[in-house]
Protein backbone atom coordinates (compact mmCIF):
# COMPACT_ATOMS: atom_id res chain seq x y z
CA UNK A 1 0.00 0.00 0.00
CA UNK A 2 1.38 3.41 -0.95
CA UNK A 3 2.17 5.82 1.85
CA UNK A 4 -0.52 8.34 2.57
CA UNK A 5 0.18 11.63 0.84
CA UNK A 6 1.39 14.71 2.62
CA UNK A 7 -0.97 17.67 2.43
CA UNK A 8 -0.01 21.32 2.05
CA UNK A 9 -3.12 23.41 2.57
CA UNK A 10 -2.55 27.05 1.60
CA UNK A 11 -5.21 29.65 2.38
CA UNK A 12 -4.95 33.32 1.46
CA UNK A 13 -6.89 36.29 2.84
CA UNK A 14 -9.19 38.28 0.48
CA UNK A 15 -8.11 36.59 -2.78
CA UNK A 16 -10.96 36.80 -5.30
CA UNK A 17 -11.48 33.69 -7.46
CA UNK A 18 -10.91 35.58 -10.73
CA UNK A 19 -7.65 37.34 -9.77
CA UNK A 20 -5.44 34.54 -11.09
CA UNK A 21 -4.01 34.31 -14.57
CA UNK A 22 -5.31 30.76 -15.02
CA UNK A 23 -8.82 32.02 -14.16
CA UNK A 24 -8.73 34.36 -17.14
CA UNK A 25 -7.36 37.60 -15.65
CA UNK A 26 -5.00 38.99 -18.30
CA UNK A 27 -3.45 41.62 -16.04
CA UNK A 28 -2.45 39.93 -12.79
CA UNK A 29 0.78 37.88 -12.90
CA UNK A 30 0.53 34.58 -11.04
CA UNK A 31 2.90 32.12 -12.74
CA UNK A 32 3.11 29.79 -9.73
CA UNK A 33 -0.65 29.53 -9.18
CA UNK A 34 -1.07 29.14 -12.95
CA UNK A 35 1.41 26.25 -12.86
CA UNK A 36 -0.54 24.57 -10.03
CA UNK A 37 -3.72 24.91 -12.10
CA UNK A 38 -2.03 23.48 -15.20
CA UNK A 39 -0.47 20.59 -13.27
CA UNK A 40 -3.68 19.87 -11.39
CA UNK A 41 -7.37 20.71 -11.29
CA UNK A 42 -9.18 24.02 -10.87
CA UNK A 43 -12.56 24.01 -9.17
CA UNK A 44 -13.69 27.15 -10.97
CA UNK A 45 -17.02 27.74 -9.23
CA UNK A 46 -16.24 27.42 -5.53
CA UNK A 47 -18.38 29.40 -3.08
CA UNK A 48 -18.06 30.47 0.52
CA UNK A 49 -21.19 30.53 2.68
CA UNK A 50 -20.70 33.67 4.78
CA UNK A 51 -21.84 34.54 8.28
CA UNK A 52 -23.10 37.28 10.56
CA UNK A 53 -19.79 39.02 11.25
CA UNK A 54 -18.31 41.90 9.23
CA UNK A 55 -15.00 40.03 9.53
CA UNK A 56 -16.23 37.48 7.00
CA UNK A 57 -12.95 35.58 7.24
CA UNK A 58 -13.95 34.27 10.70
CA UNK A 59 -17.01 32.22 9.65
CA UNK A 60 -15.42 31.23 6.33
CA UNK A 61 -12.39 29.75 8.07
CA UNK A 62 -14.62 27.92 10.53
CA UNK A 63 -16.50 26.38 7.60
CA UNK A 64 -13.46 25.30 5.61
CA UNK A 65 -11.95 23.74 8.73
CA UNK A 66 -15.09 21.84 9.76
CA UNK A 67 -16.34 20.85 6.32
CA UNK A 68 -19.81 22.11 6.98
CA UNK A 69 -22.15 25.12 6.82
CA UNK A 70 -21.82 27.98 9.25
CA UNK A 71 -24.75 27.00 11.48
CA UNK A 72 -23.05 23.66 12.22
CA UNK A 73 -19.51 25.02 12.28
CA UNK A 74 -19.59 27.53 15.15
CA UNK A 75 -21.15 27.92 18.57
CA UNK A 76 -23.31 30.84 17.43
CA UNK A 77 -24.28 32.88 14.40
CA UNK A 78 -26.26 35.59 16.13
CA UNK A 79 -25.29 39.19 15.56
CA UNK A 80 -23.41 40.64 18.49
CA UNK A 81 -22.54 37.28 20.08
CA UNK A 82 -18.84 38.04 19.63
CA UNK A 83 -17.65 35.58 22.26
CA UNK A 84 -19.07 32.61 20.36
CA UNK A 85 -19.35 33.42 16.64
CA UNK A 86 -15.66 32.61 16.14
CA UNK A 87 -15.68 29.45 18.28
CA UNK A 88 -15.66 26.14 16.42
CA UNK A 89 -18.20 23.80 18.03
CA UNK A 90 -16.72 21.29 20.44
CA UNK A 91 -18.40 18.40 18.68
CA UNK A 92 -17.27 19.51 15.23
CA UNK A 93 -14.42 17.47 13.81
CA UNK A 94 -12.06 20.17 12.56
CA UNK A 95 -9.77 19.34 9.65
CA UNK A 96 -6.39 19.62 11.46
CA UNK A 97 -7.61 17.57 14.44
CA UNK A 98 -9.14 14.98 12.10
CA UNK A 99 -5.93 14.51 10.16
CA UNK A 100 -3.97 14.46 13.42
CA UNK A 101 -6.20 11.66 14.75
CA UNK A 102 -5.49 9.68 11.57
CA UNK A 103 -1.72 9.64 11.95
CA UNK A 104 -0.72 12.95 10.37
CA UNK A 105 1.74 15.37 11.90
CA UNK A 106 -0.19 18.65 11.70
CA UNK A 107 1.82 21.87 11.59
CA UNK A 108 0.39 25.41 11.54
CA UNK A 109 1.90 28.59 10.14
CA UNK A 110 0.27 32.00 9.93
CA UNK A 111 -3.29 33.10 10.54
CA UNK A 112 -5.82 31.23 12.66
CA UNK A 113 -8.86 33.43 13.16
CA UNK A 114 -10.97 31.06 15.23
CA UNK A 115 -10.75 29.98 18.88
CA UNK A 116 -7.50 28.81 20.40
CA UNK A 117 -8.96 25.62 21.90
CA UNK A 118 -9.74 24.23 18.43
CA UNK A 119 -6.27 25.30 17.29
CA UNK A 120 -4.58 23.48 20.15
CA UNK A 121 -6.61 20.33 19.53
CA UNK A 122 -5.67 20.41 15.86
CA UNK A 123 -1.95 20.97 15.67
CA UNK A 124 1.07 19.00 16.82
CA UNK A 125 3.40 21.93 16.17
CA UNK A 126 3.54 25.37 14.61
CA UNK A 127 5.52 28.52 13.99
CA UNK A 128 4.80 32.25 13.52
CA UNK A 129 1.23 31.89 14.76
CA UNK A 130 -1.08 34.85 14.18
CA UNK A 131 -4.38 34.72 16.05
CA UNK A 132 -5.66 38.13 14.94
CA UNK A 133 -7.58 39.36 11.92
CA UNK A 134 -5.20 41.82 10.29
CA UNK A 135 -2.00 43.74 11.00
CA UNK A 136 0.62 45.86 9.35
CA UNK A 137 2.56 43.43 7.18
CA UNK A 138 5.87 44.48 8.76
CA UNK A 139 4.47 44.48 12.30
CA UNK A 140 2.98 41.01 12.64
CA UNK A 141 2.08 39.97 16.22
CA UNK A 142 2.91 36.26 16.44
CA UNK A 143 3.34 33.54 19.02
CA UNK A 144 5.57 30.51 19.23
CA UNK A 145 3.66 27.22 19.37
CA UNK A 146 2.64 25.99 22.82
CA UNK A 147 1.36 22.42 23.15
CA UNK A 148 -0.87 23.34 26.11
CA UNK A 149 -2.48 26.21 24.23
CA UNK A 150 -0.98 28.80 26.57
CA UNK A 151 -0.53 32.09 24.71
CA UNK A 152 -0.27 34.91 27.28
CA UNK A 153 0.15 38.50 26.09
CA UNK A 154 3.76 38.59 27.30
CA UNK A 155 4.63 35.76 24.89
CA UNK A 156 3.60 37.87 21.89
CA UNK A 157 6.34 39.27 19.68
CA UNK A 158 6.28 41.62 16.70
CA UNK A 159 7.92 40.30 13.55
CA UNK A 160 9.24 42.96 11.19
CA UNK A 161 9.82 40.63 8.26
CA UNK A 162 7.03 41.09 5.71
CA UNK A 163 4.19 38.71 6.59
CA UNK A 164 4.27 36.72 3.35
CA UNK A 165 8.02 36.23 3.64
CA UNK A 166 7.77 35.37 7.34
CA UNK A 167 5.21 32.64 6.76
CA UNK A 168 6.99 31.33 3.66
CA UNK A 169 10.34 31.03 5.44
CA UNK A 170 8.63 29.19 8.29
CA UNK A 171 7.05 26.74 5.82
CA UNK A 172 10.38 26.13 4.11
CA UNK A 173 12.04 25.48 7.48
CA UNK A 174 9.38 22.93 8.36
CA UNK A 175 9.66 21.09 5.04
CA UNK A 176 13.46 21.00 5.14
CA UNK A 177 13.59 19.79 8.74
CA UNK A 178 10.75 17.27 8.69
CA UNK A 179 12.17 13.74 9.00
CA UNK A 180 9.37 11.61 10.41
CA UNK A 181 7.92 8.69 8.47
CA UNK A 182 4.43 9.96 9.31
CA UNK A 183 2.75 12.03 6.62
CA UNK A 184 2.41 15.71 7.40
CA UNK A 185 -0.45 18.18 7.08
CA UNK A 186 0.97 21.69 6.68
CA UNK A 187 -1.54 24.49 7.23
CA UNK A 188 -0.06 27.62 5.66
CA UNK A 189 -2.29 30.67 6.15
CA UNK A 190 -1.16 33.91 4.55
CA UNK A 191 -2.55 37.32 5.47
CA UNK A 192 -2.02 38.55 1.92
CA UNK A 193 -3.55 40.14 -0.14
CA UNK A 194 -5.52 41.72 2.75
CA UNK A 195 -4.95 45.42 3.26
CA UNK A 196 -2.86 47.34 4.05
CA UNK A 197 -1.72 46.44 0.53
CA UNK A 198 1.93 47.41 0.88
CA UNK A 199 3.84 44.83 -1.16
CA UNK A 200 7.64 45.23 -1.13
CA UNK A 201 9.53 46.26 -4.23
CA UNK A 202 9.79 45.31 -7.02
CA UNK A 203 6.18 44.15 -6.65
CA UNK A 204 4.90 47.50 -5.38
CA UNK A 205 5.81 49.02 -8.75
CA UNK A 206 4.86 46.04 -10.89
CA UNK A 207 1.46 47.42 -11.91
CA UNK A 208 0.99 50.94 -13.24
CA UNK A 209 -2.49 52.10 -12.18
CA UNK A 210 -2.89 53.92 -15.50
CA UNK A 211 -2.64 50.58 -17.30
CA UNK A 212 -5.10 48.74 -15.05
CA UNK A 213 -8.38 48.05 -16.88
CA UNK A 214 -11.49 48.80 -14.87
CA UNK A 215 -13.83 45.80 -14.50
CA UNK A 216 -17.14 46.01 -16.41
CA UNK A 217 -18.92 46.12 -13.04
CA UNK A 218 -17.06 49.23 -11.89
CA UNK A 219 -19.49 51.77 -10.46
CA UNK A 220 -19.02 55.05 -8.64
CA UNK A 221 -21.55 54.00 -6.01
CA UNK A 222 -23.60 50.97 -5.15
CA UNK A 223 -27.10 51.48 -6.66
CA UNK A 224 -28.97 51.07 -3.34
CA UNK A 225 -28.37 50.67 0.39
CA UNK A 226 -27.29 47.06 0.90
CA UNK A 227 -27.13 47.56 4.67
CA UNK A 228 -23.33 47.67 4.92
CA UNK A 229 -22.00 50.70 3.05
CA UNK A 230 -20.32 52.30 6.06
CA UNK A 231 -18.17 49.42 7.31
CA UNK A 232 -14.38 49.75 7.57
CA UNK A 233 -13.67 48.05 4.24
CA UNK A 234 -15.89 50.53 2.40
CA UNK A 235 -14.04 53.50 3.93
CA UNK A 236 -10.77 52.60 2.19
CA UNK A 237 -11.78 54.84 -0.73
CA UNK A 238 -13.94 57.95 -0.95
CA UNK A 239 -17.48 58.10 -2.30
CA UNK A 240 -18.11 58.38 -5.16
CA UNK A 241 -15.46 55.89 -6.29
CA UNK A 242 -13.10 57.67 -8.67
CA UNK A 243 -11.61 55.67 -11.52
CA UNK A 244 -8.02 56.60 -10.69
CA UNK A 245 -8.44 55.61 -7.04
CA UNK A 246 -10.02 52.26 -7.92
CA UNK A 247 -7.19 51.58 -10.39
CA UNK A 248 -4.67 52.27 -7.62
CA UNK A 249 -6.46 49.84 -5.29
CA UNK A 250 -6.48 47.14 -7.97
CA UNK A 251 -2.80 47.73 -8.75
CA UNK A 252 -1.88 47.37 -5.07
CA UNK A 253 -4.10 44.28 -4.76
CA UNK A 254 -2.40 42.63 -7.72
CA UNK A 255 1.03 43.52 -6.33
CA UNK A 256 0.24 41.68 -3.11
CA UNK A 257 -1.02 38.66 -5.05
CA UNK A 258 2.05 38.50 -7.30
CA UNK A 259 4.38 38.82 -4.31
CA UNK A 260 2.56 35.99 -2.54
CA UNK A 261 2.56 33.89 -5.73
CA UNK A 262 6.35 34.17 -5.91
CA UNK A 263 6.73 33.00 -2.32
CA UNK A 264 4.36 30.08 -2.76
CA UNK A 265 6.76 29.09 -5.52
CA UNK A 266 9.61 29.05 -2.99
CA UNK A 267 7.60 26.68 -0.77
CA UNK A 268 7.03 24.34 -3.70
CA UNK A 269 10.71 24.49 -4.62
CA UNK A 270 11.60 23.41 -1.08
CA UNK A 271 9.07 20.59 -1.32
CA UNK A 272 10.61 19.40 -4.60
CA UNK A 273 14.12 19.56 -3.13
CA UNK A 274 12.96 17.46 -0.17
CA UNK A 275 11.93 14.63 -2.49
CA UNK A 276 8.37 14.69 -1.16
CA UNK A 277 6.62 16.51 -4.01
CA UNK A 278 5.42 13.40 -5.85
CA UNK A 279 3.52 12.20 -2.78
CA UNK A 280 2.09 15.54 -1.67
CA UNK A 281 -1.29 17.13 -2.30
CA UNK A 282 -1.24 20.90 -2.76
CA UNK A 283 -4.41 22.92 -2.17
CA UNK A 284 -4.70 26.64 -2.72
CA UNK A 285 -7.79 28.58 -1.66
CA UNK A 286 -8.84 31.78 0.12
CA UNK A 287 -11.27 32.60 2.87
CA UNK A 288 -13.43 34.83 0.61
CA UNK A 289 -13.19 37.24 -2.30
CA UNK A 290 -13.19 41.03 -2.51
CA UNK A 291 -14.94 43.71 -4.55
CA UNK A 292 -12.05 46.18 -5.06
CA UNK A 293 -14.24 48.65 -6.95
CA UNK A 294 -16.86 46.37 -8.45
CA UNK A 295 -20.49 47.44 -7.93
CA UNK A 296 -19.19 50.56 -6.19
CA UNK A 297 -17.85 48.42 -3.32
CA UNK A 298 -14.39 47.83 -1.86
CA UNK A 299 -14.97 45.01 0.63
CA UNK A 300 -16.39 41.52 1.01
CA UNK A 301 -19.57 42.26 2.96
CA UNK A 302 -21.80 41.49 0.00
CA UNK A 303 -23.03 38.48 -1.99
CA UNK A 304 -21.87 39.29 -5.51
CA UNK A 305 -19.67 36.65 -7.10
CA UNK A 306 -16.53 38.76 -6.70
CA UNK A 307 -16.91 38.39 -2.94
CA UNK A 308 -18.43 34.91 -2.44
CA UNK A 309 -16.38 32.93 -4.98
CA UNK A 310 -12.90 31.78 -4.03
CA UNK A 311 -10.01 29.98 -5.74
CA UNK A 312 -9.66 26.25 -5.30
CA UNK A 313 -6.64 24.74 -7.02
CA UNK A 314 -5.58 21.18 -6.24
CA UNK A 315 -2.74 19.02 -7.51
CA UNK A 316 -1.11 15.81 -6.38
CA UNK A 317 -1.41 12.04 -6.67
CA UNK A 318 -4.75 11.04 -8.15
CA UNK A 319 -5.55 14.54 -9.42
CA UNK A 320 -5.70 14.99 -13.22
CA UNK A 321 -3.61 17.72 -14.80
CA UNK A 322 -5.02 20.65 -16.75
CA UNK A 323 -8.61 20.11 -15.70
CA UNK A 324 -11.12 22.90 -15.06
CA UNK A 325 -14.42 22.03 -13.40
CA UNK A 326 -17.29 24.52 -13.62
CA UNK A 327 -19.79 22.66 -11.43
CA UNK A 328 -21.08 24.46 -8.33
CA UNK A 329 -19.22 23.48 -5.15
CA UNK A 330 -18.60 24.91 -1.69
CA UNK A 331 -15.38 25.89 -0.02
CA UNK A 332 -16.25 23.47 2.80
CA UNK A 333 -16.13 20.58 0.29
CA UNK A 334 -12.33 20.83 0.48
CA UNK A 335 -12.10 18.96 3.80
CA UNK A 336 -13.97 15.78 2.74
CA UNK A 337 -12.19 15.88 -0.63
CA UNK A 338 -8.79 15.86 1.08
CA UNK A 339 -9.97 12.98 3.27
CA UNK A 340 -11.00 11.06 0.15
CA UNK A 341 -7.68 11.69 -1.60
CA UNK A 342 -5.76 10.72 1.54
CA UNK A 343 -7.60 7.46 2.15
CA UNK A 344 -9.32 8.75 5.29
CA UNK A 345 -13.01 8.44 6.11
CA UNK A 346 -14.56 11.91 6.33
CA UNK A 347 -16.44 12.86 9.52
CA UNK A 348 -20.09 11.83 9.51
CA UNK A 349 -22.91 14.34 9.50
CA UNK A 350 -21.11 17.20 7.80
CA UNK A 351 -22.57 19.20 4.94
CA UNK A 352 -19.43 19.05 2.80
CA UNK A 353 -19.13 16.48 0.01
CA UNK A 354 -16.02 15.10 -1.63
CA UNK A 355 -15.61 16.27 -5.21
CA UNK A 356 -13.18 13.45 -5.97
CA UNK A 357 -15.64 11.86 -8.40
CA UNK A 358 -15.83 15.16 -10.29
CA UNK A 359 -12.05 15.47 -10.30
CA UNK A 360 -11.60 11.94 -11.63
CA UNK A 361 -14.31 12.33 -14.24
CA UNK A 362 -16.52 9.68 -12.67
CA UNK A 363 -19.33 12.22 -12.26
CA UNK A 364 -20.35 15.40 -14.04
CA UNK A 365 -22.68 16.66 -11.31
CA UNK A 366 -21.79 19.16 -8.62
CA UNK A 367 -24.38 20.83 -6.43
CA UNK A 368 -27.72 21.91 -7.89
CA UNK A 369 -27.74 25.08 -5.80
CA UNK A 370 -25.45 26.99 -3.47
CA UNK A 371 -26.36 29.55 -0.82
CA UNK A 372 -24.68 32.40 1.00
CA UNK A 373 -25.59 34.90 3.69
CA UNK A 374 -24.48 38.10 5.33
CA UNK A 375 -25.75 39.24 8.73
CA UNK A 376 -29.54 39.76 8.88
CA UNK A 377 -29.60 41.79 5.66
CA UNK A 378 -28.56 39.59 2.70
CA UNK A 379 -29.32 36.06 1.50
CA UNK A 380 -28.31 34.46 -1.81
CA UNK A 381 -29.29 31.36 -3.78
CA UNK A 382 -27.76 30.32 -7.08
CA UNK A 383 -28.28 27.48 -9.51
CA UNK A 384 -26.35 26.65 -12.67
CA UNK A 385 -27.74 29.71 -14.45
CA UNK A 386 -29.68 32.13 -12.25
CA UNK A 387 -28.76 33.89 -9.04
CA UNK A 388 -31.07 35.70 -6.64
CA UNK A 389 -30.03 37.99 -3.80
CA UNK A 390 -32.65 39.10 -1.27
CA UNK A 391 -31.99 42.17 0.87
CA UNK A 392 -33.76 43.25 4.05
CA UNK A 393 -33.61 46.33 6.25
CA UNK A 394 -31.79 45.32 9.42
CA UNK A 395 -33.79 45.13 12.62
CA UNK A 396 -30.49 45.71 14.43
CA UNK A 397 -29.29 48.85 12.64
CA UNK A 398 -32.21 50.11 10.57
CA UNK A 399 -29.93 50.07 7.53
CA UNK A 400 -30.53 48.25 4.29
CA UNK A 401 -33.29 47.90 1.72
CA UNK A 402 -36.15 45.52 1.03
CA UNK A 403 -34.96 44.59 -2.43
CA UNK A 404 -34.43 41.64 -4.78
CA UNK A 405 -31.87 41.07 -7.51
CA UNK A 406 -32.02 38.33 -10.16
CA UNK A 407 -29.13 37.76 -12.54
CA UNK A 408 -28.88 35.50 -15.57
CA UNK A 409 -25.24 34.53 -15.09
CA UNK A 410 -25.03 32.78 -18.45
CA UNK A 411 -25.56 36.11 -20.21
CA UNK A 412 -24.57 38.51 -17.45
CA UNK A 413 -21.56 37.14 -15.52
CA UNK A 414 -20.70 40.61 -14.17
CA UNK A 415 -24.13 40.86 -12.47
CA UNK A 416 -25.16 44.14 -14.05
CA UNK A 417 -28.70 43.57 -15.33
CA UNK A 418 -31.26 43.00 -12.58
CA UNK A 419 -34.16 40.95 -13.99
CA UNK A 420 -36.22 40.78 -10.81
CA UNK A 421 -38.87 43.25 -11.96
CA UNK A 422 -39.30 41.62 -15.38
CA UNK A 423 -42.50 39.49 -15.29
CA UNK A 424 -40.97 37.02 -17.75
CA UNK A 425 -38.61 35.89 -14.97
CA UNK A 426 -41.25 35.45 -12.28
CA UNK A 427 -41.00 31.62 -12.49
CA UNK A 428 -37.24 31.79 -11.81
CA UNK A 429 -37.80 34.13 -8.86
CA UNK A 430 -40.47 31.86 -7.37
CA UNK A 431 -38.34 28.73 -7.78
CA UNK A 432 -35.29 30.34 -6.20
CA UNK A 433 -37.41 31.74 -3.37
CA UNK A 434 -38.63 28.21 -2.61
CA UNK A 435 -35.08 26.90 -2.67
CA UNK A 436 -33.82 29.66 -0.38
CA UNK A 437 -36.70 29.27 2.08
CA UNK A 438 -36.14 25.51 2.28
CA UNK A 439 -32.42 25.93 2.86
CA UNK A 440 -32.81 28.57 5.59
CA UNK A 441 -35.26 26.36 7.45
CA UNK A 442 -33.12 23.24 7.05
CA UNK A 443 -29.96 24.85 8.42
CA UNK A 444 -31.83 26.70 11.20
CA UNK A 445 -30.89 30.17 10.00
CA UNK A 446 -31.83 32.35 13.01
CA UNK A 447 -32.90 35.16 10.66
CA UNK A 448 -34.97 33.04 8.30
CA UNK A 449 -38.17 34.69 9.46
CA UNK A 450 -37.02 38.03 8.10
CA UNK A 451 -36.75 36.64 4.58
CA UNK A 452 -39.75 34.30 4.37
Descriptive overview:
This protein is α/β, with parallel strands linked by helices and 452 residues long. It has two domains: 365 residues, Alkaline Phosphatase, subunit A (3-Layer(aba) Sandwich); 71 residues, Arylsulfatase, C-terminal domain. Helix content is 27%, strand content 17%. The protein has twelve helices and 18 strands. The protein has an eight-stranded mixed β-sheet with strand order 6-5-9-1-10-12-2-13, sandwiched between helices. The protein has a five-stranded mixed β-sheet with strand order 4-15-16-17-18. It has a three-stranded mixed β-sheet with strand order 11-3-14. Helix 4 runs parallel beside helix 5 and helix 6 runs parallel beside helix 7. The radius of gyration is 21 Å and the shape is globular. The model has no long low-confidence stretch (mean pLDDT 96).
Topology (SSEs and partners):
Blueprint: E1 6-12, H1 31-39, E2 41-43, E3 46-47, E4 50-51, H2 57-66, H3 70-73, H4 95-101, E5 105-111, H5 116-122, E6 125-130, E7 140-142, E8 157-159, H6 163-177, E9 184-189, H7 243-274, E10 280-286, H8 305-308, E11 309-310, E12 312-315, E13 323-325, E14 329-330, H9 334-342, H10 356-360, E15 370-374, E16 378-382, E17 386-391, E18 403-408, H11 426-442, H12 448-451
Parallel strand pairs: 1-9, 1-10, 2-13, 3-14, 4-15, 5-6, 5-9
Antiparallel strand pairs: 2-12, 3-11, 7-8, 10-12, 15-16, 16-17, 17-18
Helix pairs in contact: 4-5, 6-7
GO cellular component, one term: cytoplasm
Family: Belongs to the sulfatase family.
Domain Sulfatase N-terminal: 5-344
Amino acid sequence: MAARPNVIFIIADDHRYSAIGASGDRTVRTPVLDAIAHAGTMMASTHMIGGVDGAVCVPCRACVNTGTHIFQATESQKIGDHSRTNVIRNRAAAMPAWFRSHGYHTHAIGKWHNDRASFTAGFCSGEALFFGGMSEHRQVPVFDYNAEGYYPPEALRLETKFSTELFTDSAIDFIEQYESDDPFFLYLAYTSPHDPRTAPEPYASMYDPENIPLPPSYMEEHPFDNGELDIRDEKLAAYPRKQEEVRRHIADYYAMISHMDHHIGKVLQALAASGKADNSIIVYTADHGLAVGQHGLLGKQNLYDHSIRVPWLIKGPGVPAGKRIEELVYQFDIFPTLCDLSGIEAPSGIEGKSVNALIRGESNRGRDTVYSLYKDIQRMVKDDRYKMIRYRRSAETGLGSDFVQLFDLANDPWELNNLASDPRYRPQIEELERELAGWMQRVNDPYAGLFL
